[in-house]
Records
---
Amino acid sequence: MKFKQQHWYTLLILLLTVGIIAGCSESSTNTDADSDQEETENGETADGEPFVLGEEPLEITMFGNYDWYTMPGWGDDEATAWIKENKQVDITAVDGGGNAEQRLTTMIAGEDLPDFIWTDRGTPVERLREGGALVPLDPYLDKYTNLRDWFGEAGINMLRSEDGHLYQFPNWYNSSPFGNAGYVVNKGIYEELGSPPLETTDDLYEYLKLVQENYPDVIPFEVGIDGQGINVLYSAFAEGESPANINNIAVPQGDQLVSIFTDENYIESMKYASQLFRERLITQDALTQDQDMLIEKVTTGNLAVYAAASPTDHARTGHYALQEEDPDGGYFMIWPIHKEGLDKNEIYPGSYNMMGWNVSVITKAAEDPEKVFAFLDWLTGPEGQASLIFGPEGKYWDGFDEEGFPRFTDAYYEDPEGLATIEEDTANFQWNGNSNFLDTAKANFEATLSEEHRNWTTHWQHTITWDTQYDATQYLNISPLPESEEGIIQQRIGEIFEEARAEALYAQSDEEVEAIMARAEESAQSVGYQTLLDFQTEKWQENLATLAGE
Amino acid sequence: MQEKSEITIERIRPKKKRNIFYRYFKQFDLQMMVIPGLLFIFIFNYIPMYGVLMSFQDYNIFDGMRNSPWVGFKHFEMFFNDPRFMEIMRNTIVISGLKILICFPAPIILALMLNEVKNMAFKRSVQTITYLPHFLSWVIVAGFAMSILATDNGSLNIALEKAGLIDEPINFLAIPQYFWTIIVTTNLWKSIGFASIVYIAAIAGVDQQLYEAAALDGASRFKQMFLITIPSIMPIIVIFFILEVGNLLNAGFEDLLILGDDAILRSVSDVLDTYVYRVGIGSGRYSYATAIGLFKAVISVGLLTLANYLARKTGNSLW
């Protein structure tokens, strides 16, 4: 029965052999990273004639670094079929298989990267750059000028990495405010309760009480998933600030970023939220519910007020569903709630930044990075954007006007559904959307419509949400890399913050909220919060300088 | 019988000592069948093991293992000094301990109970119904649990309210005190039927003559269960127990990740695996994650050996 000693030895020797063999076989890989680094230093501008799409076939591979992302077939829809045919561009995607992070890691380790990667700004990009996997884009900026023309020099400078080079191509960059954060109100319930004023936090509290009394089965205040609406409430107490402070876990004070746990406005907002929660005015599943539970409530109208980072997504569907039952029902948005005494025009329930959403980076695996850049630059330019969003030239638009915007044909006005189909079909090809171009082009069209013909979301964007979003461009990239000392601190602070937020929401009294915040401050300081804040302050000040054009 | 087998072993031994290769080639055809299995284990379980070296490096994915700097025990020290270390270890051991305490004996009891059922149709349907949850993924099971326990419209809250036991719905998934109970209960529901299959099979293999003899001697059903059934399946129980103890540091992963989503539960739901996932893999700290994984593996091997040593005393050890 005994497992003989000699068997143990055999096992040990076997293991060691495997280790040695495996260790040695690694040797042939990963030697070119350093040599590549040097090459990029030479030549600030690319030489030769610009590459014109369509002159020769161009095949590009891409990877979308998101779990949810699967690229539809390139050329399966009207718009990309036209691009494929006329511009001779063919794109194939590496699929993340629902686990993008792991797929990307495998590709890096296997040195099998695609031509360009579509990903979030910040850590994912910086990690690839530090590993020497990215191609700097500066040499192409003067040769292909759409990015510079539409995005601007200040934006490009904000996106530059530490080494002064530009590696990322932005998506949905925009110089004017955008975003949907705010409060959606159930019209049927609101009117039946006599349309009381809904402007201050006290008004909101009274109204929610009223809802609770009259509709015991309705959720008075819905906060979306992850308690987004609780962050939105912070804006009601903080004049001239936005929930971006909560995401940063840092609050600006003069030229310093300071602790959020000691911030009066934040503590006050948590006391308010905790009171609503305690009195069962907020959905009791605020922090645990999933998307499905939320959608059900919104589409059945089982809530009175709904606040979130983008409540319009579900509320729009809900609005049309409720209107089918009752033409006077549906949802409407209100001007952001403010605390009595604050200026309601300085309340920002959400934030945006000029860099838009995410970026594309071109990797060194690209055979000819210049051509890839040429394609991306074309796609973000007027012809590319118009083809992708409004379809091939000739049907919904024909040529450009003197300002460079597409001239819409009659079909554009008469066939909104066909037009919407094109935009929906290409949603997953919109890697570098140009909001500056599209919004102006669309605005001309929207201006010609009456209110009831406008899309519900568009209507509220124009009347409320776009005016009440905060420009948080200054806080871009203030997060450290996760492996760095500050990164490890940030990870711990993030956990302390999340726990404190949950505890405060479930607290039984205002005093308890204060005690929780004080305790959180203490633990945060003990893991090095100040070091992180100093780091973030420095990055923030650099951003301010860049934005000021220094 | 016992004596007879002793004798045969004595006879074979000298031959075996004389020539191991002779024995090997004599069973060549059989050995060939084992080779694919061995190769499979070697390629997929042993070769990737060199990756644990990563835990002694500051591993950088672009530099690979060859060029990443060696840092000794840095990542282990970092983990042991982490402010959450004690809490994570406590949660891991407590949750795992509760699972052993409750989820381990439960299928044995179920098997014993089913063994006493005489109506075959009833027995079969109970068996089928109890083992089906095993095939559901945790995402679905946790989804069930969440909608049952939800505060707004959760069936449990509605039932309790209707029964007049509570006035206001309870937010079960946001109260740390309830969490371990919820986890153990859902685990029990999901695993009990499937785990009992092996015990039912073992019970079916017990010699019926033993029961007949016992019945003639006047043993009651309970006496038969304790004096015949349980001792007969004891070797199986011990082997499964040893494996379970070796798994002490695997407190579960998907169940804790999904049901323990609320930040307020982190102080009771964060175990080694969820921590590795969140801090290590989630933020790309591969070396750190590997160090914790290696630490876990070393302890597990130790526990397994210890459990086996203890079991050997009873004569039912794994090796």
Note: Chain A has 24 helices and 15 strands.
---
Amino acid sequence: MSANTWTIAAARDALGKGEISAVDLTMSCLTAIDAGDDLNAFVHKTPEIALEQARAADARLKGGEAPAMCGIPLGIKDLFCTKGVPSQAASNILKGFKPEYESTVTSKLFDAGAVMLGKLNMDEFAMGSSNETSAYGNAVSPWRRKGSNVQLTPGGSSGGSAAAVAADLCLAATGTDTGGSIRQPAAFTGIVGIKPTYGRVSRWGIVAFASSLDQAGPMTKSVRDAAIMLQAMAGHDPKDSTSADIPVPDFEAALTGDIRGKVIGIPKEYRMDGMPAEIEALWQTGIAMLKDAGAEVRDISLPHTKYALPAYYVIAPAEASSNLARYDGVRYGHRAKLSQGDGITEMYEKTRAEGFGPEVQRRIMVGTYVLSAGFYDAYYNRARKVRALIKRDFEVVFDEGVDAILTPATPSAAFGLGEMADADPVKMYLNDVFTVTVNLAGLPGVSVPVGLDAQGLPLGLQLIGRPWEEAPLLNYAHVLESRAGFVAKAEKWW
Amino acid sequence: MAIDIDTARKVAKLARIRVEEADLPKLAGQLSGILGFMEQLNEVDVTGVEPMTSVTPMRLKRRKDEVTDGNIQAQVLKNAPDAREGFFAVPKVVE
């Protein structure tokens, strides 16, 4: 097996034993990336940086005592600012932007010896569920329906990350998740993705979408890899005032496989009308696996679930409209060509009309509207009150002894690129129905591949944990992963 | 609540995004659809509920009010579309 197909854990062990060099491991990924252009996952390739980092990693490995991520080749979502490397959040408004600084997450990964292969495609400003709003064009899933050559979405917004990991262009990738942008693409492509507790990972240097919801996390080929990579990403950062100053436990050590006596809640409100029978069957399979491992399964109620999506689509655009006000054509990125007599207002308006794509414009305007005088209370404040109730729903079940919650990750398998083009924007938003509650409540959530649908496409389940309890959450995910034994890979067509 | 064309024009103006007159009806329709979806929130009894302002209950950290950074003018201006003589340059503003 070519080394680009390895897990982080396997590569770490091989690097540690000197069975492969970081340079050779990196080369195998660079070769796979060049052969994978049809997936449009890597949108800025950085082979020189990768090889320089790999050589440094080899030197460090020779010295012994290298960290777990030393020499591991990664893809980095375009939302992360990387010094001297294009970082444009898949938007034309940041075309040509090369940050003069490094995000905290990428700094930590590089300090641990990780290798950056390049920047990954995504929905523009992480606003989308199919990677179809990207200024770089669609990322394409390596997966196809049985006997079909229709191009499918890898999900979004971390679609490039999902496609790259699933197609073995890299060992793992960074993602970010504001309403499901790690977990939904992970589920669509048969990989693992965890959104940590809000505050576990620093947001500094990550292009902001909705600051009270955004959180970065790893997208990997296994739960163990998610534990290893999250370890390197997590921790307090004085530069992010919402980052938590609490110890980070050893996530990999928590993967004991022992979940006897743990209480897993099954929320009845996640049984949606019109949900495909396959999703329901998958959920039942997951329940049986956790029971079989000795967990107690309990029916629970999260009564405000139905209101999570409308609350999210008030709060996230409101925060986005404030955050994206900075793109004005003055300090960085695109500035529109002005006509004779145009003043500063025309400069703002033309720059933003040219630079932002339609979905981003729509969300900025929705956010502007719900924050405007006369509507602030009716929409924004009401949504924040509903958000408090959604969070309380979870607190109640956790107080009653529930350790984690099992739900489907998505309401369907991956759909075809362009299939939702004529649908109204709200239909696309429904993709986030199972994931968005977790962001609103600030909880950790992980998506684990559990099976294939009748057309041969991956389906995932989501586990939701208590705040700051990513370690036990990853252990439940590990149990689910072991019992599901998901090993399917996309058949190579690219 | 349905968004009419005048409201759509006003929102675009507030958001500082140029929208051509011909595109306003479509925008108004889409905004109406999205806001209609949000109307569901009116079904929820929120009496006595405080709006959520912080995801994790914690006191923001404080630090001494002192300069911790600086002397990086060139870096600050590096990505500017138009920088001159150490400043960001914009069209003339006459009030």
Note: DSSP finds 15 helices and eleven strands in chain A.
